[in-house]
Amino acid sequence: MLIGHQPPEFLLAVEGLTVSFDGFKAVNDLSFYVEENEIRVIIGPNGAGKTTVLDLICGKTKATSGAIHFRGKDLTKMKENEIVQAGVGRKFQTPSIYEDLTVFENLEISYPQGRSVFGALAFQRTATVRERVEEVAEAIFLKDKLGMSADLLSHGQKQWLEIGMLLIQDPDLLMLDEPVAGMSVSERVKTAELLHTIIKDRSVLVIEHDMKFVEDIAHKVTVLHQGQILSEGSMDTVKNDPKVIEVYLGH
Ligand SMILES: Nc1ncnc2c1ncn2[C@@H]1O[C@H](COP(=O)(O)OP(=O)(O)OP(=O)(O)O)[C@@H](O)[C@H]1O
User: Fold this and answer.
1) Taking burial as the number of CB atoms within 10 A of a residue's CB, which of 39, 122, 197, 235 is the most buried?
2) Is the CB of 62 within 6 Å of ligand 1?
3) Membrane-spanning regions, if any (predicted)?
4) Which pTM does this prediction carry?
């Protein structure tokens, strides 16, 4: 080894990850590495294993073999709640916000301190919590909607609110499954802006089919096919890769 040469520091190192469902390998000996402050996008045809990869990272699905290193821990050995505590936040495709609460209350109950033994809603509204709620609301473009009942938000605003509910927990890795599905063009542009702002303090792993959006956000793209990497690199590299055109982009 060269003197003074440091191995690169990855926030997330997925190594040899495999999961079999009744003998079918949905993810097959997969390895990829995400750096600090990186926006990584996973693309690929239907059934490629994209959602399963996020399920494995957040502990919803248990790996058959392989490792997922995150901040010195192997996530494959941890329970879902421990993985959240370790700093991994995951947003699913459908927003799961509390429709009958206001935007403020949705953010407030997601503040980590809210999950105390006294119950999520009973804790005191400290100045710190209010400040943090306002800061997050501003980032997700909902500062002027804090008092609004969440059921009155547009679909895109509900998606942002859910991202906000994860951001308030300050995860080091935020995983988003098709965050701009169903959003208007202007909402997509603002979501790209939001992701570029929030990676100052974290990395983001996104599954997405909207290639314009991928182009706007991705530092690096991983193309999955049949549970394995078909191609990886910059958007330019992967979109000009004949293998990617053949199995995905050409359709
Ligand atoms: N719990 C499970 N049991 C059995 N098979 C599963 C399970 N979860 C996923 N699969 C299968 O694994 C494969 C990969 O599914 P996955 O949802 O990860 O694909 P995807 O790339 O996210 O697809 P899409 O773009 O359609 O969401 C599919 O063939 C799916 O049917």
Assistant:
1) 39
2) no
3) none
4) 0.90
Which of 170, 197, 212 terminates a domain? The answer is: 170
Cα 68 from chain centroid (whole Å): 15
- Cβ neighbors of 75 (< 8 A, separation 6 or more) are 57, 59, 68, 69, 83, 86, 88
Domain that holds residue 202: 9-87+171-251
* Neighbouring residues of 229: CB distance < 8 A, sequence distance ≥ 6: 30, 31, 32, 222, 223
The label of the residue with tokens 């990850």 reads 17
Query: Does residue 225 share a domain with residue 119?
Result: no
- In terms of residues, how long is the chain? 251
Residue in 17, 18, 21 to alter for ligand 1 test, most ligand atoms within 8 A of Cβ: 21
Using a 10 angstrom Cβ sphere, with 0-12 exposed, 13-18 middle and 19 or more buried, the burial of residue 24 is exposed
Query: pLDDT digit string (tens) for 53-94?
Result: 999 999 999 999 999 999 989 999 999 999 999 999 998 777
> Among the atoms of ligand 1, which is closest to the Cα of residue 52?
18
Question: Do residues 13 and 72 both lie within one domain?
Answer: yes
